[in-house]
Amino acid sequence: MTQKQKHFETAVIHEGYDTKEMLGSLSPPIFQTSTYTFETAEQGERRFAGEESGYIYSRLGNPTVRVLEERIATLEKGEAGLAFGSGMAAVSAVLIALTKANDHIICSSGLYGCTFGLLTMMREKYNITTDFSEMKSKEALRNLIRPETAVIYVETPINPTMRLIDLQRVTEVAKEYDIPVVVDNTFSSPYLQQPLELGCDIVIHSATKYIGGHGDVIAGLVVGKKSFIDMLSQTTQKDIGGIISPFDAWLLLRGLKTLPVRLDRHCDNAEKIVNQLKNHPKVAHVYYPADDDNPDLSIMKTQMKRGGGVISFEVEGDKSRAQQLLNRLGFLKIAVSLGDAETLIEHPATMTHASIPFDVRQQMGITDQLIRLSVGLEAWEDIWADLEQALDQL
Ligand SMILES: *Cc1c(COP(=O)(O)O)cnc(C)c1O
Fold first, then answer.
1. What pLDDT does 1 receive?
2. Residues with Cβ within 8 Å of residue 259, at least 6 apart in sequence
3. Closest approach atom of ligand 1 to CA 218
4. Which domain, by its residues, includes 74?
5. Are 129 and 165 in a shared domain?
6. Which of 226, 256, 286 is the last residue of a domain?
7. Domain total in the chain
8. 2 occurs within a structural domain
9. How far apart are CA 102 and CA 88, in angstroms?
10. Which of these is catalytic: 209, 306, 361, 372?
11. Is residue 154 domain-resident?
């Protein structure tokens, strides 16, 4: 968008797209094409040589996808964006691009399960080692840095414990050593948290979650400096090939238009449900970034706009109690994933985090009686009524 930068709520709707260039079409057209024709052999030569801009082949670029990439770059306050066929395609393209054999990575002490799996594979194949840290102080972080440390990789809020990492603290240390900081911003979306503004270098999203928002697409996004995004598009994206389809890019463009409206409602509902859960006798603990009892509340206030739509809580009892709760729900859905219109509930110890060994899970705070709730867009009274009747039966 030219001239003055528009507000976030305007950018989600207009950024990166000019109807005049597309025959006035209000909705961006879906360019469902694999390849693009050249008028002459010489034009093809110039396109491949990079002397003339224009499309060549849809793995290397597509106009519908381009709109999405420009939009997400603006929303995350970055120079450029790149879209992928899944969040994991984005995570793997970034981590492989930033590392070589025998390097070292420092990660937040909670990670998405498949990211953990990717790091395990990179250790086994390329001897790339990983240290996990809660990053509670600059000293703790400095102590882990080695000459071969290539990346600091952070998720905040940490799934499913909802603890937070102070991004400003991390970037201050990283800058002393010139190490790039990558943030998986899936749980917050750019509406609630903008890591690049806090000095981080690269943001990744599983767009499957809040950005898509309707449970109907798997996709990933990356935002960073133009030089980095260009390198990514010409190396790990082009040659590994985890691209997004034009239709899925269009679905994300549609989802993005309502991101601020949806997220405000997710947060409103989550705050209400947190209050109810905290007062229920069968609930032992509630974990939510914006809750007064969250030990990281001060970090939340400096780097997040609101607490988001995901809550975790522990029921009194054991694993079977947690499973009973899920089984007694009425219209609320038992499913992994998050950020959809439907409220989704899952049991991390046996689902999303089942591949983590029991004792490591305990250290991470993922007990057998912990439940994760992605609060949807339904009336909060209905969400609570269903949860309450299931809790009352325990
Ligand atoms: C879902 C998720 C991913 C993986 O994204 P996919 O789109 O499922 O490939 C990565 N990070 C976080 C935090 C997630 O929630």
1. 45
2. 12, 189, 190, 191, 210, 211, 213
3. 7
4. 7-256
5. yes
6. 256
7. 2
8. no
9. 22
10. 209
11. yes
Mutate to test the pocket of ligand 1, among 206, 217, 312 (most ligand atoms within 8 A of CB): 206
Answer yes or no: is the C-beta of 208 below 6 A from any ligand 1 atom.
Answer: yes
Is there a single domain that holds both residue 228 and residue 332? Answer: no
**Contact call for residues 128 and 105 (beta carbons, < 8 A):** yes
pLDDT digits (tens, 9 = 90+) for 336-353: 999 999 999 999 999 999
State the average pLDDT for the chain: 96
23 and 76 housed in the same domain: yes
Strand 129-133 to strand 104-108: parallel, antiparallel, or no bridges (unpaired)? parallel
**Mean pLDDT for each consecutive 10-residue tract of the chain (394 residues)?**
78 97 97 98 96 97 98 98 98 98 95 91 98 95 98 96 96 98 98 98 98 98 98 95 98 98 98 98 97 95 98 96 98 97 97 88 91 98 98 96
Sign of the alpha-carbon dihedral angle for 117, 121, 123, 129: negative
- Judge if 191 and 300 occupy the same domain: no
pTM of the model: 0.96
| C-alpha span between 282 and 181 (Å, rounded) | 40
Please say which residue of 256, 273, 295 terminates a domain. Answer: 256
| Three-state secondary structure call for residue 290 | coil
If one residue of 118, 158, 186, 336 were mutated to test the ligand 1 pocket, choosing by the most ligand atoms within 8 A of its CB, it would be 186
Q: Residues 104, 239: one domain?
A: yes
Unique residue bearing structure tokens 């996990």: 132
Whole-angstrom distance, CA of residue 270 vs CA of residue 248: 28
Distance CA 150, CA 128 (A): 10
